[in-house]
Design goal:
- The protein is an alpha+beta fold and about 650 residues long.
- The protein has five domains: about 5-105, Rossmann fold; about 135-205, 2-Layer Sandwich (Dna Ligase, domain 1); about 210-450, ATP-grasp fold, B domain (D-amino Acid Aminotransferase, Chain A, domain 1); about 460-570, no CATH class; about 580-650, RNA polymerase II/Efflux pump adaptor protein, barrel-sandwich hybrid domain (OB fold (Dihydrolipoamide Acetyltransferase, E2P), Beta Barrel).
- It is about 25% helix and about 30% strand.
- It is built from 16 helices and 42 strands.
- It is globular.
- One of its GO terms (molecular function) is metal ion binding.
- It comes from Pukyongiella litopenaei.
Length: about 650
């Protein structure tokens, strides 16, 4: 249904809700936000003209509850609903319910959402439309034996995918037959939790492809155009991390062929609005249909930057029943744009999501830089939601100019609180394979291996210690009455030595700090020492590219142009509980879905112990040692650090 409207409810949260509202406000539309208790102080709520609370926090009882969202629309007097991406954006029932309630749904018809949301049905429809597809199994028989047989028939490696959703949820790559059953169980469980359906499809895994997608737009009058492509090959856990437009290896002929296939796909299902047709592109130039996302994409800013078109404004126009107003020959691409997704996650710990308060947030600015974010200082990053915090986008006349601008912008980005992937993004953009435009979906594994986080060197530690010492000195002077700054750190015997204990992950550093007559600090740990001076901060004569410093209780944050560091001050008498490999704790806040062992069970190193759900993903907890289970927690909501399983190891 199309029609005019003067107010829009954005059925989403975070950066996408704020981004949609900015265009809506620019068009004179009233903006209505929905939020949970956990999001009550979020920027999108403060920006909106009106806001409605729809729950405590868990997505199943709030952002995924269509009835609550529709009730919010009625309560607020909204005339239209924009679903953003994720949550209810590809829920055909929600789209139909909006239209039944007299609301303009800013998206495609429910019939198109339903068809393309079912990956099995979508593959069949695309095959009928002549769009090339990856070979696989898309049948209705979901018996484990049938799926196992089909996987063996097509040969490993095999990709398991949730039939009802995307975004990397319910997706597992299985390298060999013996891992299929466990991967299938996890994929189904994750799919059910995310999409309400545990149906899966199987596909023959295409090794080392590029992930290339075409942005399409269709109006209610039969016009369908594409706005070029995006390369989204840099991924971890099957979720995109870096995206760019145009694709580095695209040719005019290949763009015309892929664009025509995408337009044919949209035309075959009576599409309307913004959509993305995703393909796998191999090194021979052959491409295969992957899926169609019937919504706005996270990475839409790179298309906006190279085409000069506001895609949300186009969505509003199509929803009002207007014609697109341009033809395929009117679409041109100018320059190059690259987007990096800033996630609350720890690359050094398997990219596990991170949660907690945001102590300091300073986004980058500058020529050709765009930041779409939905966070603010003092806001808590919740384990209930996706860990993406912001998108940093750079545009340049050439790909390398855009890449260099994005690296500089990330170096200027400061976020203290949860762990983030900022340093990983900087390193990824600087890898020779990415700089040369050669990254495929195997890029992260090939370029980083297991080492996705740098190890702190002594210069880093010395810089942090110096900043803490200076902070402590300033605090002491603030409390002092007659002590001058020049006498700080001195006593009657001469220079005073202070000791500082820091923890950096699993590493402990015991440091001695001595202030010299010239104000310089000598920082040592018994084996090494460094001379640190201030204004500007230098370690052994090398200037520290300081971008930010923050102290929150016993936590200390320091960001340079290359690294963001977090240390904890270890106070005298504090003794950390040494659980070793036999104590398995929750790596983050979340819901302990399954505990696969019981008290008294014998386990071997590598055995699966439990499944934890956090930030919309499921994580397996694995035994690091062999032994007997002394304690196993019951499924429940858990906090980071809670003991979940204790394994008593045998004496050597």
């Amino acid at each position: 249904m199309t029609g005019d409207f003067s107010s829009v409810l954005v059925a989403n949260r975070g950066e996408i809700a704020l981004r949609i509202m900015r265009t809506a406000r620019a068009e004179g539309l009233a903006c209505i936000a929905v939020h949970t208790d956990a999001d009550a102080a979020a920027p999108h709520v403060r920006f909106a003209d009106h806001a409605v609370n729809i729950g405590a926090g868990p997505v199943a009882d709030s952002y995924l509850d269509a009835d609550k969202v529709l009730q919010a629309a009625r309560q607020s007097g909204a005339q239209a609903v924009h679903p953003g991406y994720g949550f209810l954006s590809e829920n055909a029932g929600f789209a139909a319910a909006c239209e039944a309630a007299g609301l303009v749904f800013i998206g495609p018809p429910a019939s198109a959402i339903e068809l393309m949301g079912d990956k099995a049905a979508a593959k069949r429809a695309m095959t009928a439309a002549g769009v090339p597809c990856v070979p696989g199994y898309h049948g209705a028989d979901q018996d484990v034996a049938t799926l196992t047989e089909e996987a063996a028939r097509m040969g490993f490696p095999v990709m398991i995918k949730a039939a009802a959703g995307g975004g990397g949820r319910g997706m597992r790559l299985v390298a060999e037959a013996r891992g299929f059953a466990d991967a299938l169980a996890l994929a189904r469980s994750e799919a059910m939790a995310a999409f309400g359906s545990d149906e899966v499809i199987l596909e023959q895994a295409v090794t080392r492809p590029r992930h290339v997608e075409i942005q399409v737009f269709a109006d209610a009058h039969g016009a369908v155009v594409h706005l070029g492509e995006r390369d989204c090959s840099v991924q971890r856990r099957h979720q995109k991390v870096i995206e760019e437009a145009p694709c580095p290896v695209m040719t005019p002929d290949l763009r015309a062929a892929m664009g025509a296939a995408a337009v044919a796909a949209a035309g075959a299902i009576g599409y309307r609005g913004a959509g993305t047709v995703e393909f796998l592109l191999d090194d021979s130039g052959a491409f295969h249909f992957l899926e169609m996302n019937t919504r706005l994409q996270v990475e839409h800013p790179v298309t906006e930057m190279v085409t000069g078109r506001d895609l949300v404004a186009l969505q509003f126009a199509v929803a009002r029943g207007e014609r697109l107003g341009f033809a395929q020959e009117d679409v041109s691409l100018t320059g190059h744009a690259i987007e990096a997704r800033l996630y609350a996650e720890d690359p050094g710990n398997g990219f596990l999501p991170s949660a907690g308060p945001v102590h300091r947030w300073r986004p980058a600015t500058g020529a050709g830089i765009r930041v779409d974010a939905g966070i603010a200082e003092g806001q808590a990053v919740s384990s209930y939601y996706d860990p993406m915090l912001a998108k940093i986008v750079a545009h340049g006349a050439t790909r390398d100019e855009a890449r260099r601008r994005l690296i500089a912008a990330l170096r200027d980005t400061v976020l203290f609180g949860p762990e983030t992937n900022r340093d990983f993004l900087i390193e990824a953009l600087g890898k020779p394979a990415f700089a040369a435009g050669e990254a495929t979906t195997a890029f992260v594994g090939e370029a980083f291996g297991e080492a996705t986080a740098p190890v702190s060197d002594f210069a880093d530690i010395a810089a942090v210690a110096a900043m803490i010492h200076g902070d402590d000195t300033r605090r002491a002077l603030d409390r002092a009455v007659i002590v001058s700054p020049e006498l700080a750190g001195w006593g009657s015997p001469g220079a005073l030595h202070s000791r500082l204990r820091l923890t950096d992950g699993d590493a402990r550093h015991v440091l001695t700090i001595t202030r010299g007559a010239d104000g310089a600090l000598t920082i040592g740990d018994g084996d090494r020492s460094a001379r640190v001076t201030a204004d500007p901060l230098r370690v052994d004569g090398r200037r520290v590219d300081l971008r930010g410093f923050h102290r929150e209780g016993d936590d200390v944050f320091l960001a340079t142009g290359a690294r963001a560091m977090r240390f904890a001050i270890e106070r005298a008498g504090d003794i950390a509980r040494a659980g070793g490999g036999g104590t398995v704790t929750a790596p983050m806040h979340g819901n302990l879905l399954q505990v696969l062992v019981r008290d008294g069970d014998s386990v071997q190193a590598g055995d699966r112990l439990a499944v934890l759900e956090a930030m919309k993903m499921q994580h397996e907890l694995i035994a690091e040692v062999a032994g007997r289970v002394r304690f196993a927690a019951a499924p429940a909501q858990v906090q980071a650090g809670d003991v979940l399983v204790e394994i008593e190891t045998e004496d050597p």
